[in-house]
Specification:
By secondary structure, the chain is α+β, with helices and mostly antiparallel strands. The chain has a domain at 124-287: Glucose Oxidase, domain 1, CATH 3.50.30.50. The chain is 21% helix and 22% strand. It contains 8 helices and 12 strands. The chain has helices at 11-26, 54-57, 133-138, 147-150, 167-173, 187-190, 208-217, 236-244; strands at 5-9, 68-69, 74-76, 98-102, 112-118, 124-126, 151-158, 181-185, 222-225, 250-253, 263-271, 279-287. Strands 6-10-9-8-7-11-12 form a 7-stranded mixed β-barrel. Helix 5 packs across helix 7 (208-217) and helix 7 (208-217) packs parallel to helix 8. The longest helix is centred in the N-terminal third of the chain and has 16 residues, at 11-26. The protein is globular and about 60 Å long. The relative contact order is 0.18. Bound molecules: zinc ion. Residues 120, 124, 126, 253, 279 line the site of zinc ion (ZN). Keywords: Extracellular matrix, Secreted, Signal. Residues 1-18 form the signal peptide. Pfam families: Cyclase. It comes from Macleaya cordata.
Length: 288
């Protein structure tokens, strides 16, 4: 369902690298490159700004790998983009998505990566143009998504584990009117489907009648799910059509909802501003 591919350079990272390089060059390799923007914490206090000798002095450096921040106040609900992450319809997973065309080991002044992946990779968002071609042509891309919908109070709920998200399942959740953002945790999380490279068509998702029930009986505008599609495989197109037709519901798919208590959080999701793209990788966090 996701034919469009996107390739772009990590411009932000590159810009930071290039600015640092310029500053350092102008300073003629001075003893410290600390600036107001980076007053500390980047480990450059002990380096000469020439940088080349830096790595040899810190062979034992271990970067932090975190899922929570601030003592658990901030929970990352984004899956790391990795080569063995599942990819829709594929048994091969995401595969290689990063290249290093400019490498310091090959003489470049900085490492500059390039990436190429489906816009619907890992934790990602769908725009109306994903299933409606006239919306796609009209420009309803990820850059048009309402950040007000993607940021604010949210409810994490556990869906009954024995079925897809049907109208009956939706009704049983008793989600009050006024709740605008809901993260639906399902059997997919229990089965750890996002940790299995092979795409699994037996994932749990919305059936058409469940999507219809949500629209007619709730105020939910952000729908978060824990596998690569909000719609169950059997209703893949029909449930997506129900959700996306009104252009006011945003689907965030492939969320990492393991080991989090159900309840109310503040959710914060930010898609990339990919002009013309009907999907985008998205970074989502919960704040307690
Ligand atoms: Zn998608």
């Amino acid at each position: 369902m996701m034919m469009m591919k996107v390739s772009f350079t990590l411009l932000l990272t590159c810009t930071v690298h290039m600015l640092t390089f310029t500053v350092e060059s102008l300073a003629s390799c001075s003893s410290s490159s600390a600036t107001e923007a980076y007053p500390s914490g980047y480990g450059d206090e002990h380096s000469s700004s020439c940088g080349a000798s830096y790595s040899h002095e810190h062979d034992d450096l271990v970067p932090p790998k975190r899922e929570v921040y601030g003592g658990g106040r901030i929970i990352d609900i984004t899956h790391k983009i990795r080569s063995d992450l599942p990819s829709f319809g594929s048994s091969e997973g995401v595969g290689q998505f990063l290249w290093l065309p400019s490498s310091m080991k090959n003489g470049s002044f900085a490492n500059i990566s390039e990436m190429k992946m489906l816009t619907h990779t890992g934790t990602h968002v769908d725009a109306p143009g994903h299933f409606f071609d006239h919306y796609f042509d009209a420009g309803f891309d990820v850059d048009t998504l309402d950040l007000d919908v993607l940021n604010g109070p949210a409810l994490l709920v556990d869906v009954p584990r024995d079925k897809n998200i049907t109208a009956e399942a939706m009704e049983s959740l008793n989600i009050p009117r006024g709740v605008r953002r809901v993260l639906f945790r399902t059997l997919n999380t229990d089965r750890k489907l996002m940790w299995k490279k092979e795409f699994d068509t037996s994932f749990v998702g919305f059936m058409k009648d469940g999507a219809q029930w949500l629209i007619e009986n709730t105020d939910i505008k952000m729908v978060g799910v824990d596998y690569l599609s909000a719609a169950a495989f059997d209703n893949l197109i029909s449930a997506h059509l129900v959700f996306l037709e009104g252009r006011d519901i945003i689907l965030v798919e492939g969320l990492k909802l393991d080991d989090i208590n159900p309840g109310i959080y503040s959710v914060h999701c930010l898609p990339l501003r990919l002009v013309g793209a009907e999907g985008s990788p998205i970074r989502c966090i919960l704040i307690k």
